[in-house]
Amino acid sequence: MNKDDINSIKTLLSSPKAIVIIPHKNPDGDAIGSSLGLYHYLKQFNHNVIIIAPNDYPDFLKWMPAEASILKYDNQKENCDAVITNADLIFTLDFNALSRIGDMEAIVSHSEAVKIMIDHHQQPDDYATYMYSDVSMSSTCEMVFNFIEMLDDLDKINSDIATCLYTGIMTDTGSFRFPSTTSKTHNIIGQLIKKGANNADIHNQIYDTNSYARLQLLGRALSNLKVIPEYRTAYITLSQEELNAFDFKKGDTEGFVNYGLSLKGIIFAAIFIESHQDEIIKISLRSKGDFSVNEVSRTHFQGGGHTNAAGGKSELSLSKTIDKFISILPQYKKDLNP
User: How many structural domains compose the chain?
Assistant: First the structure.
């Protein structure tokens, strides 16, 4: 985002506007954290700001300041359509293709509002008037911090903004252990703590609220873990029947895929989760080093993301999806065994 873009956005924000903030479908900590962080910033300038999420998200994200104000498109469609139609500005956060917002795609695509994208995923679509796209960033929350800094408003960051942005950076960096975590990321985290983010409390809210059923589900996932040593690959499967048996709630499988990646010698891990409701197999892919799961997901599983973290889906059965996954591994033998 260049100086001309920033100056244009400053002009747009210089008088009260009707603003909509939209995260991606099945929003995670970075999507909700960045949306709420930007929400609290914009509210200080008397804008009418509304966050519309395409659908619901896990309970462990529902403690953040002003979270209760977020509208969910899937059960408030008529109200949300009116809000989008009347918007002057639309911020799209943590995604870079309108297909990532599900049923909202059509009305957002046809909206005449000025669109501003803030995102760190690869290969963005060209739908926004202003694009702040940087794949080197750890998270969209880090980018929202930078965006506020570009607008010369770091003094506007209060404890609510700091809490929301800290949450998204923490979750999207795997508690600051992923390669995208830079010295600048840590510097920003330090500033957010000074601004009022309680790091210990945030960590507890996100990671230390397991239910007994979720831990039992994790046990089942780990018992389903398979290793393919010749391709330095591990994968986990969870059927709909298994999810039902352990009272699955949205977000319960968050982070499960990382257990496969934690195995010694493994550089590629996947989890395949059956969803009868969506009639798909949901796929999360993780890797170490230069092996690109973004490329694997885009090529084979209708998805995408980052080099080391991506998502996708399959419309085949669970067993046939696994067969397909195993069948493609020989294509990547040189990358998996350099």
Answer: 2
